[in-house]
Here is the input.
Amino acid sequence: MDCLFCKIIAGEIPAERLYEDEDCVIIRDIEPQAPTHVLVLPRKHIDSLDKAAPADDRLLGKLLLAAADLARREGSADAGYRVVVNTNADGGQTVFHLHVHLLSGRPFIFPPG
Here is the structure.
């Protein structure tokens, strides 16, 4: 498989790893859109949220909990943070391996797009 995030997870491409366990890897985004911008990557390759199955429900919850835990550890939880899942091309997804963006360190406006 020629997936950038699968290669990062496998250690074939270097990345700044902040956390990893049996289900996910958290890395810093190389093109940050906020002072803190990290990506929560599931080890299991799923092309997009649109391709997730009911059997992935535990994994999807784990990704969100991992993002919240990292926000607390980075000191962003009290001030606030944004969690984003871009889905497919019109949703802004550029790497087709499901991932969660955690952004913090500045105020965010709404609507975001």
In short: Residues 4-104 form a domain with the HIT family, subunit A fold (CATH 3.30.428.10).
